[in-house]
Sequence to fold (58 residues):
Amino acid sequence: MRDGAAAQYGSDAIAGVMNFIMRDDSEGLTVEAKYGQYAEGDGDQYSLAANIGLPLTD
Fold:
């Protein structure tokens, strides 16, 4: 981001930022699914995440 966008626009400025995490294991696939509620009556919470590792070189 340029020109101090995070400080100027708050959470709207970081909504499109992606978080890249470099992992040691470069190959494989993981899928994670979660379901739950924070408190009764809050509504259902769903989360689905996937991670695929591909080697960068031969």
